[in-house]
Amino acid sequence: MRLAKLYRYPVKGLSPEPLDSADLPADGYFPCDRLFALENGPSGFDPACPAHQPKIKFLMLMRNAALAGLATRYDEAAGVLTISRKGREVAAGDLRSAEGRAAIERFLSDFVGAPEVRGPVRLLEAPSGFRFTDSKSGFVSLINLASVAAVEKAQGAKVDPLRFRGNLYVGDAEAWSEADWPGKKLRIGGATLDVLKMTDRCAATGVEPGTGKRDMDVVQTLRDNFGHIDCGVYARIEKGGRISVGDAISLV
Predict the structure, then answer these.
(1) Angle at which helices 218-226 and 145-155 pack, to 10 degrees?
(2) pLDDT digits (tens, 9 = 90+) for 5-44
(3) Peptide bond just before 31 cis, omega within 30 deg
(4) 45-50: long-range contacts (C-beta < 8 A, 24 or more apart)?
(5) What are the E-state strand segments in the chain?
(6) What share of the chain has pLDDT > 70, as a percent?
(7) Is 118 helix (H, G, I), strand (E, B) or coil?
């Protein structure tokens, strides 16, 4: 097996950013992943005492498919988030400033619009040691590209692997072999991951990346053809280290 692709998602629900490598911290989260979230009306999130919140409290693809039509880039050094649509920049803001956050909030509130926007859209930043993941176990997510190919065959249409919004995309594995990974460890580059559980899927996978069109029911395809709604796994970073696209992946 090998690491075929690598992505981070700085803002929950917004577009992925491809990476060549990443330094994984032991017992931490994937770097700069789900570091921000867009609160859709008051969620009760308290940064002084952060607790996992249901994803429905935020703007997200399961309910707000139009978000997939936006291309976003986060400049970590400058703190600037840039949003483009159809190749044209439509908003930008320094997330370290109130003015910059307000610019992003205004744009997304207008772009998504009522009735999907339930209240003031507010950009939240995760405090140290916390991330806005869908699952409490969402430290790192891995997707087996062979399983995506099996879903594509069953669907009878092209299925972009980015529908599954993983961090690590695994090549040269057998389809659905990840079902045997929970409870085992994976060595990738300088890091070791402890695989925790399979990842169950929701309606967000039915949204086409890049367009925001809801064009298929991947969850139903999984259920009808494979008897489950899982695709991919969550893992904890047991041993930190650098991983890079092309690295060999081995079961420990």
Answers:
(1) 90
(2) 999 999 999 999 999 999 999 999 999 999 999 999 998 9
(3) no
(4) 45/124, 47/124, 47/125, 47/126, 47/127, 48/127, 50/126, 50/127, 50/130
(5) 2-8, 17-18, 21-24, 36-40, 70-75, 80-85, 88-94, 121-125, 140-144, 168-171, 185-188, 191-200, 230-239, 241-244, 249-251
(6) 100
(7) coil
Chain region(s) in the chain for CATH 2.40.33.20? 2-28+135-251
Residue with structure tokens 């389809």? Answer: 175
Residue 102: C-alpha distances to residues 108, 123, 226 (Å): 10, 8, 44
Question: Is the predicted pLDDT of residue 137 greater than 90, yes or no?
Answer: no
What's the distance, CA 238 to chain centroid? 20
CA 117 to chain centre: 21
φ and ψ at residue 68, rounded to 5 degrees: -70, -10
Token pair belonging to 60: 């997200």
CATH of segment(s) 2-28+135-251: 2.40.33.20
In whole angstroms, what is the distance from residue 118 CA to residue 146 CA? 39
pLDDT digits (tens, 9 = 90+) for 69-92: 999 999 999 999 999 999 999 999
In whole angstroms, give the CA distance from residue 113 to residue 4: 37
Task: Provide, rounded to the nearest whole percent, the portion of the chain with pLDDT above 90.
Answer: 94
- The tokens describing 18, both together, are 């491809």
